[in-house]
Design a protein that fits this description.
Layout (H helix, E strand, L loop, with lengths): L1 H15 L7 E5 L4 H15 L3 E7 L13 E5 L9 H14 L3 H32 L1 H10 L3 E4 L5 H9 L3 E5 L8 H4 L20 H33 L6 H5 L4 E4 L15 E3 L13 H8 L6 E5 L9 H11 L5 E5 L12 E4 L4 H5 L4 E6 L3 H10 L3 E3 L6 H10 L3 E3 L7 H13 L1 H15 L5 H15 L14 H4 L2 H33 L3 H17 L3 E2 L20 E2 L20 H18 L18 E5 L6 E5 L10 E6 L2 E7 L2 E3 L26
Parallel strand pairs: 1-2, 1-4, 2-3, 4-5, 5-6, 6-7, 8-9, 8-11, 9-10, 11-12, 12-13
Antiparallel strand pairs: 14-15, 16-17, 18-19, 19-20
Helix pairs in contact: 3-4, 4-8, 11-15, 13-16, 19-21
């Protein structure tokens, strides 16, 4: 640690002794506890030789008008929009609703939070409007030629003013309009990154992930449909068309995030995010004499320190009485930051003060525990000094903060709405007497301190980095300049989907066409097959006991007009076989194979049926050859495409047994079915026409 401090001081000395000149920095802070840590940064920058101007409201709670560390720019508003009593009133309503049930308490907390946010943003818009309408003030600010805007984006006044003045921005950030700052700039998978207000850890069950998803939707609704629309009219009045608050918020050069991952759950980050959690922490200074005497009088039992932060001085009377009564039952002494009416159950071991040097008290060796509302400033000080925490969350992020320390084994939590004296006493006694809390907090303290550079020194370095280099655009990811569908690759997914559909669709159509031809050849309609089989069997029976041994010889004999093929008696087996063979001819084109197979089957079935025949022939010059076969007494008309053995063009004539035309001849050239296949029947009549046997493959 000494080495890192030495390096930082060496770096500082080199700057101050090499012609280093201070820059002019405009600071637009958020009042309240946010100013407590911003002031630490302002003081450090001033000590580095920079000139700082702080914009403040005339009725500011904590930002002083006169300070040796900065020049104030005071804005006088026509009316006061928000006061400290607003927060205490909200706490009372929330605690009252929590006592009626979890759902009622959750709804009340949401309602109060939305109410506070509306008033805060209304005050922000009023302040910005007042400034921009004051031409003289804006002229002075422009003439000052500031180099940088340092702001807290929890309220977007500094963000909007930086864009109006066209200044680079650096954030001192933890919260934004959505909630926790990471959700506005870094990937935030809600499967393991708990959403602000959910009270969850990074290890969530299925139901907890559902709860986290609901909280994400609520936060998104709050930002996109409540906060952002409030600024639309203001931006339309003072900025060019198309000005968008979300784009403005994401355009900061650097984000100095008040987070340390010994406290925060690990999560994705971005190159322009730098973590400075606990930068306001420092070693304890000596206490005033009266406080030091009180601490020493605590003996071996030590002291418990209690504070509810800068915005909330107290809670409902019954809660304060329960806490005071529980304090009276412990052997430790208590220092309690308290305003209001003194609890009647207060014991002599408890000291009430309106203000306490919190960091110095937590760093005192006599301090045993810290009772806190869960603000990040106080919790980081507790981590820095290794003091275990008993949390009483009330508003905003306080529940999430206590949950994080509780998950690390360094804190315990009580619900102020239902807390009794016994509940508070048992929880406090556990934190004081169970060594695991102090051991876990000591471990967190060691990890937090084990850094190459103090978080405050890191913050100052990166602020000056932006000042020296006029920005840090090389650290900006392009994610937020992309459209939503491009960022999530929805267009890529759509293209891949359509490509796959086209490929598989084409394959499916081809497969269907192929299967349709094959299936119809092999598995024709059973009814038609049975009828054709029956008709063929009856026809052969009508002709007597004839056996057609061979309709055509393999060598393809020529048949004269006066003589047909030889007919022989039908054997007792009753089998009939039809074979047509001859020299191989070029196969049909694939597009005609299936049709030819179907037509050949129909032709064969009807060729042996008695009836009138009408045959016509078209030459090759007409690009098709057709045989039309019409059976009397039916509307059936089939067409079969043939290929000639040789290209002799003569008048077609039939050859074959009477009323059984099976061979078409042109002069002495044979036109026939090549390897036509076979039809058989036995004890179970069936017909099996085969495309393979047609020789069409």
């Amino acid at each position: 640690m000494f080495g890192s401090k030495y390096l930082f001081f060496l770096w500082t000395w080199l700057h101050l002794h090499s012609g280093y000149n201070g820059y002019k920095i405009l600071v637009f802070p958020v009042d309240g506890s946010h100013w407590v840590n911003m002031e630490v940064m302002v003081r450090k920058l001033e000590s580095r030789g920079h000139n700082l101007s702080v914009i403040r409201d005339e009725g500011s709670w904590f930002i002083k008008d006169n300070s040796p560390f900065y020049t104030s720019i005071t804005v006088k508003l026509k009316e006061k929009h928000i006061g400290l009593d607003l927060f205490e009133t909200a706490v009372h309503r929330i605690l009252e609703a929590r006592g009626q049930g979890l759902l009622t308490g959750a709804l009340a907390q949401m309602s109060e939070f939305i109410g506070i946010m509306k008033k805060a943003h209304t005050a922000t818009i009023a302040m910005l409007t007042t400034m921009l309408e004051n031409k003289e003030l804006m002229t002075e600010i422009k003439m000052a030629k500031y180099d940088l805007m340092l702001t807290d984006p929890a309220m977007p006044a500094g963000v909007i003013m930086a864009h109006y003045l066209q200044l680079p921005m650096v954030y001192n950030v933890r919260w934004m309009s959505f909630g926790e700052g990471h959700f506005s700039i870094a990937p935030s998978p809600i499967s393991y990154v708990p959403v602000p207000g959910s009270g969850l850890t990074d290890r969530m069950s299925l139901l907890e992930r559902c709860q986290n998803f609901i909280h994400y939707g609520l936060n998104l609704f709050q930002e996109r449909w409540l906060v952002i629309p409030m600024y639309n009219k203001f931006l339309a009045d003072y900025f060019p068309p198309g000005a968008d608050l979300l784009d403005m918020q994401r355009s900061a050069e650097l984000w100095l995030v008040r987070v340390d991952f010994v406290f925060e759950f690990p999560r994705p980050s971005m190159p322009n995010l730098f973590y400075i959690g606990g930068f306001q922490c420092r070693p304890a200074n000596p206490l005033p004499a009266d406080l030091e005497e009180f601490m020493q009088n605590s003996g071996e039992h030590g002291v418990v320190v209690m504070s509810l932060g800068t915005l909330i001085a107290g809670m409902p009377t019954e809660v304060m009485e329960a806490i005071a009564s529980a304090f009276s039952r412990i052997p430790q002494k208590v220092i309690w930051r308290f305003t209001g009416h003194k609890p009647s159950s207060l014991a002599n071991n408890t000291l009430l003060l309106q203000w306490i040097p919190q960091n110095d008290l937590l760093g005192h060796p006599k301090t045993r525990a810290f009772v806190a509302h869960g603000g990040t400033n106080g919790l980081y000080e507790a981590i820095y000094h290794g003091v275990p925490v008993l949390g009483i969350p009330l508003l905003f992020d306080q529940l999430d903060n206590i949950v994080r320390l509780q998950a690390r084994g360094a804190a315990r939590m009580v619900d102020a709405a239902t807390c009794t004296t016994q509940d508070f006493f048992d929880a406090l006694k556990d934190v004081l007497e169970n060594p695991s809390y102090r051991r876990s907090m000591r471990k967190l303290s060691d990890l937090h301190r084990d850094q190459p550079l103090h978080p405050l020194d890191k913050a100052i370095y990166w602020i000056e980095f932006v000042l020296r280099n006029k920005g840090a655009s090389h650290l900006h990811a392009q994610a937020y300049t992309m459209s939503t569908y491009s960022y999530y690759c929805l267009d890529v997914a759509l293209l891949v989907l359509f490509t796959l559909l086209f490929i598989f669709g084409g394959f499916y159509v081809c497969l269907r066409r192929w299967k349709r031809g094959t299936t119809k050849v092999k598995d024709c309609n059973k009814k038609d097959l049975k009828e054709g089989n029956k008709e063929l069997k009856e026809t052969v029976g009508q002709q007597g006991d004839w056996w057609l041994n061979s309709l055509l010889h393999p060598e393809g004999p020529a048949c004269s007009e006066e003589q047909g093929p030889e007919w022989r008696p039908l054997p007792a087996s009753g089998a009939v076989r039809l074979v047509a063979a001859g020299p191989r001819t070029p196969p049909l084109h694939p597009s005609r194979r299936q049709a030819a197979g179907r037509e050949a089957t129909t032709f064969l079935k009807n060729a042996l049926t008695p009836g009138a025949c009408d045959v016509s022939f078209s030459t090759k010059a007409k690009q098709k050859q057709a045989l039309n076969h019409q059976i009397s007494g039916s509307a059936l008309r089939q067409r079969l495409i043939f290929q000639p053995l040789r290209h002799s063009l003569c008048q077609p004539t039939f050859h074959g047994a009477p009323q059984h035309p099976s061979l078409l001849s042109i002069g002495d050239e044979s036109w026939h079915l090549r390897k036509l296949g076979f039809l058989e029947w036995g004890s179970q009549p069936h017909v099996i026409p085969s495309l393979m046997k047609f020789g069409l493959l």
